[in-house]
Specification:
The protein is mainly α. It contains 2 helices and no strands.
């Protein structure tokens, strides 16, 4: 038995997001959806916070290399201004 979570099932059929997703899937079958992860300000002097951020980035890169869940990952460097 398998189950697949489809967020579109929670949208009303006549809603613009549902209509857009239906058209997208019809015209681009097999295409993947993109997602972004955004953080708030990071305290670079807080070692624990930076270690956790590094662990997140490493996990995403490992999932990408293992070809599981993530089809591609673009990890940006921190820019300190």
């Amino acid at each position: 038995m398998s189950s697949r979570f489809k967020p579109v099932d929670f949208l009303p059929d006549d809603s613009p997001p549902h209509q857009w997703l239906r058209a997208y899937n019809q015209h681009f079958p097999g295409s993947l959806h993109s997602a972004g992860i955004y953080t708030g300000p990071l305290n670079i002097s807080n070692l624990t916070e930076m270690v956790e951020f590094d662990r997140l980035m490493t996990t995403l890169e490992e999932l990408n290399r293992a070809d599981r869940v993530i089809a591609s990952a673009l990890c940006w460097e921190l820019v300190i201004v």
